[in-house]
Amino acid sequence: MFSKFTILLWLLLHPVYVSLTSVDYAPQDNSFKVFIKLYLDDFLLDAEQDESDFLSSETKSKEIIESYINQKLIIKADNRILAGKVNCLEISNDEVKIYMEHKISRRPRVVLVRNLIMTDLYDDQSNFVIIKIDNFEEGFKFTPEITEQVFNIRN
Length: 155
Description:
It is built from four helices and ten strands; from the N terminus they run αββαααββββββββ. By secondary structure, it is α+β, with helices and mostly antiparallel strands. A hairpin with a 4-residue loop joins β1 and β2. The longest helix is centred in the middle third of the chain and has 15 residues, at 58-72. Mean pLDDT is 90; it is low at 7-14.
């Protein structure tokens, strides 16, 4: 009984370091629609940003986020690195929700994802990614030890 209580207490006190990302191919405009959700305080620490400065204007916030994500979440489609553009940014309840678009020239056959979000910050960071292209859908858990995954898209 005491050991179960100790484990439960440790889990409650131990913070969770996690980000969620979805990468969805949109054939109508040949792009990836990328959604990223992470905690504001962790992002500010990893991006080395001051909260008041970051939140000073929506334009500045989008620029900082876009630069950070393009450095920390690398998406290569058929061996071409894709730069993302922030379409929408929502900040509430200590969470950051980022909606981005990465333009591509055609439906990819191979997609490489490198996820470095907060991997230098926390040893137990987990970055969950789901990639969806037509009927292909696969999830992957990135960690500080495993930061890259290749997805071979089946027809």
